[in-house]
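Can you make up a protein sequence with its C-alpha cells?

===
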Amino acid sequence: MPALLIDPHESGSAIVFANDAFRHLTGYGVDEVVGQSWNLVAGPETGRNTLAAVDGALRCGEGHDDELLIYRKDGTSLWGSLTLSPVRDGDGRLRLFSLVLCDISAKRQAERLLEEQVEHRTQELQTALEQKTALLHEVEHRVKNSLQMTASLVLLKARRLQNPEARKVLQEIAERVSALATAHRLLYASGDVSRFNIRDFASELAGELVMGLPKGQVNLNLDIQPLGVPASKAAALALLLNELVGNAVKHAFPDGRRGRLTIEIGRAENGLRIAVEDDGVGLDHAPPSEGSFGKTLIAMLVQQLKGQLTWQDMEPGTRAEIVMPVDAEETRFE
C-alpha cells in the first residue's frame, strides 16, 4: 500500500518517509518527496474542502478518512482513498502521522458507470411513463366522447316518447351517463390521470342541477376540500354524488319550495366523508322499496365502495352521510 510518514512538528507537516509503493504510484523519486508537504499529490481538481479537512486533522492530531483526486508527477490523475492516522509514543505524545493511499479509480469508474446506467434507465422509465400518461389521456378523452354521445342519443329518444314514465326513465339514464362523462372529462383535463378531482366534479354537478330549478329557489352551499381520489373510484363516486345531489334537488323542494342545499366532502378518520343535506320536505328514511331505484343504486354504490350510509331527519330536511375507506389526498390540480 502506498504510504507516507509525516512529521506534524515540521513546517508544513513535511514528509519524512515514502515507501516504494507510493513512489511507484505517483512517479516521484525519494529526493522529490522527503521534506515536501503531503499535499504535493494535490492538483487543480483536488477538492479544496478535502485538503482543508486533512490539514485540520494534522493540526489537531486526529485521524481522518477521505477520498480525493491524486495527481502523479507527470500530471495524470487518479482517484484515491486516504487514511490519516496519528502515531503516538508510549507516553501518548504525538510523534508522526501515517498516511496510506489506495487507488480506487476502478471503483469510482464502476460507480460512474452505474450512475450513468441508472440515469439512462430513469430516462427510459420517464419516457415510458409519459407515453402511458398520454395514452391514458387519450383513452379518457375517447371514453368521455363516447359517453356524451350515448347520453345525447338517449335524450333524443326520450324526447320522442309519448309515455311520460318511459321518458322520465330515459332522462334519468342520460343524466347518469352524463355524470360519468363529466368524470372522464375531468380525468382527461387533469395533469394527473391517476387522481380524480372530486371537488371540481361535485361543484360542477351541483351547479348544473340547481340551475335546472327556477332562479333563486335553492341556495347552494359547498364545503368541499380539494381532494384527489384514485381514478379507479371515479365512476362509482360520480354516480353516487349524482344520485345524492340529484335526489335532493328533485324531491326536497317540490311546488317551488325555497330552501338550501349543502354538500360537504372531506377526509375522515378512515378515508372519505360525503354529506348532502337539505332543508326541504324530508324523505322516507325506511329501507328503499324495489321501485325506488335511486336509493337502491345509492345503497349498491356505497356497498361497492365499502362505505357506511346513514340517513338523518333534520326536521326540516334530510341529511345523507357516507363514510368510506377511500384514499383521499389534498391535491393541487393543474
In short: Helices lie at 20-26, 30-33, 48-60, 105-159, 164-189, 198-211, 234-251, 293-304. Residues 114-189 form one domain. Residues 27 and 73 are 5 Å apart (CA to CA). Confidence is low (pLDDT under 50) at residues 285-291.
